[in-house]
Amino acid sequence: MNAISAWLLSANIKLNSPDLTAVYEQQAGGYLYKVFPTGDSCWLAVSWPSGSRIAFRMAYSPDDQLELKKIEEQDGQVSFLLGSLLGDYESVLSLPSTANAVCRLTTTLKAAAPLLFPYWPRDIVPLGAPGKKLAEGEIKVSQVGTRSGQLYFSLTRPEAGAVLYLQNLTALADYNQATETSAGDTVGGEWPEIGFALPPTLKNKPLEAGKSYVLSDVFLAFSDEVPAEEPAMVRQYLDLLAAVYLAIPKPATTYKHWPDVLSKGLEDLIESPACWSQVAGHQYFNAYVCDYATPPEIMVQLAVLLPLLDYVEWNDAQLAVMKKIKEGLPAFFDEKFGTIMRWHPKAADKMEADEEQKKPLVMDSWYLQHPLLNLSRLALKGDQVAEKLFLDSLEFAIKVAHHFNYSWPVFYKMDTLEVVKAETQPGKGGEKDVPGLYAHVMLQAWELTGSKRYLAEAEKAALKLKGLGFELFYQANNTSFSAGAMLRLYKITKKEVYKELSYLCLANVFKNVKLWDCNYGYGQNFPTFFALFPLNDAPYTAVYEEQEVFCAFHDYLRHAEGQDILPSLRLLMAEYIRFLVDRAVYYYPTVLPGEMLSEEVKVGQVDPNLWIALEDLHDGWEKSGAVGQEVYGAGNAFGILPRHYMQVEGKPFMIYTDYPTYGFASHKHRPAIFRLAGDGRLTSRLMLVKTDKGKMPDFKVTIGGSKTPLTGKKTKDGHLEFTVPGDSEIHINWRKT
Average pLDDT of 376-383? Predict the structure, then answer.
């Protein structure tokens, strides 16, 4: 047990006093809930069936005596009205019900005076059994930066169970705006000093007297299991997270017309000289707008090419730019090493080497695997040049895997395989999700050639992910691709370990999302709910990784069709996709106010009139676009359009949903039938999107072939919009008016 603060020592003694009397007591969902005033605080104490207890602070007024004025019960909620020197508190408790297994506790303060909070204690006390010392426990997940305000932990001595605590940081926007504070790094701590602490008001920006502010809005999910093994822990976390997700308020989304966004982005991508460089008679995409100092990278070329391929296959179109990209790819192959290289060999020596990986023969571990994965995708579609580049590079990739025993460092030298940088941080290991990415590459090689050697390689690499827990995640897209590879291995081998490893990968991804909306500062200009961070310590969300995770989730759900997959994952993945389709347009500087764009740019330049996405969106008090305008993030729109717009042959409309779908085939026959992904307790937007100036047909939209049609609403652009439950079969019929 770590040493504890005087504040926690005092709170523990008071809450274990034999003279303490509850002012409210209720059983719900197998747990006992009691409310205790203890002088300067008011607490909700929750007891497990085993008798172990944990307390959550409802209200706090330092060096004060809280006055309980009233308890009101209405519509399943209990309100506690408390007077204090700081002002009037209201704490509203919503207990678990048969429809909702989650407890909610919301506290609002009406300030009595202009208030500053230079310090605020964390709000959880792990009491253990009455009369005993503080319970011992283990924190498995806590907030990093501006990710979800979550804390996932177990009480281990006495063994009680696990808790998922999620602070709804969206609700704190008025506090953050008034005090000019961030909601980042507010939930966490070290055992036993854990929980949420209000960000300190260090800028002399007070709360306004007479105004009400939400100081806490916490959702709690409990389990009486302390998982002994990694797979059980992962399942528990995902199930508790999904339960809490169902309970939290979620922002409304709006329809974004992605065909227009794609058209503008495609024109700027092709026509803007800022996106291109020329080497040895071939043209290549820059990584960033106006980034002429960095030589062409094969990852960048393929990261744009593959989404373009998705688009032309969907649209049955031809794009000359794709031929231009493909013609330049063979130049990245180095005959001496027998592999593709990261940097264009004829321009690599021009790098300024201002970063440790910006040297001709230094390879970032995932930068070899990712282009191979994309080349394999082209090869499986019949591209012979890509197939040769892919197959000719496999021996080198296998050599590297064997050299590092399937555990890759961060950087190594291509000629000697000498490690340049072993760990992301001291003691944290290298790029831990690369074994999964390598397994994906090997599965592609097996599918292309039929050689069981590659399948064996995939299995050996996959098992390196076991035991990594919540430390597996290095980069969001690669962890997501790893999840898909593990699911494919499970389907091929029927070995449960691979399905469990796919869950482990996805749990690591959902640990790194932002389940709140940053409605303060510049954050008022763009939505952030369910945004995903590219690295486990990145201070911003990034367009490229989000776009690739979006595609990886679609692919995972496609492979999961007909499989017995954890329902909580189906729910969370579909919801991430739904919010990404709403949010992703805000990566384009063209839709953001100029004052929130950074004046200083790390790489290249930012052109606010160019439909090329910014790499980075930040916390509400920080300007965005500080890294640069990401050409290799251009796949944003090209990934969304083919996956969310279904074309009906010869008809003046498209069918759009913001959930993934299964089973739709493009045809002119009626009715159109397809199935939505997701969970039936949540809803998706369905749109019949007008594609020409003529009159739309009359539509009949039903769920599962029901005789009762849904009622849609017409938008100002002439589209027809419906709200439909997830995991449902949609039937759409039409006739001319």
Answer: 97
339 contact partners, CB below 8 Å, separation of at least 6: 333, 368, 392, 393, 396, 397, 414
Neighbours of 34 (CB within 10 A): 18
Q: What confidence tens digit (pLDDT) does each residue in 347-361 have?
A: 988 877 677 788 889
Q: What is the mean pLDDT of residues 377-388?
A: 97
Helix (DSSP H) and strand (DSSP E) numbers for the chain: 15, 35
C-alpha 413/C-alpha 94 separation (Å) is 57
Q: Which of 250, 226, 248, 253 minimizes the C-alpha distance to 237?
A: 226
Give the tens place of pLDDT for each residue, 187-207.
999 999 999 999 999 999 999
User: Do residues 42 and 226 touch, judged by C-beta distance below 8 A?
Assistant: no
Partners of 83 in the β-ladder:
67, 88
- Ranges of CATH 2.70.98 domains, the chain: 6-247
**What pLDDT, on the 0 to 100 scale, is given for residue 694?**
84
pLDDT of residue 129: 67
**Contact predicate 578/659, CB 8 Å:** yes
Contacts of 26 (CB under 8 A, 6+ apart): 32, 33, 78, 95
For 6-247, CATH number? 2.70.98
Q: Are 8 and 14 in contact (CB under 8 A)?
A: no
d(CA 709, CA 701): 5
| pLDDT number for residue 718 | 94
Q: Which of 332, 515, 517, 318 is nearest to 414 (CA)?
A: 332
What's this model's pTM, rounded to 2 decimal places? 0.97
E strand or H helix at 241, and its extent? helix 230-247
As a residue count, the chain comes to: 737
Of 618, 547, 625, which is closest to residue 590 (Cα–Cα)?
625
Whether the pLDDT of residue 381 is over 70: the answer is yes
DSSP bridge pairs for 60: 41
- pLDDT recorded at residue 36: 97
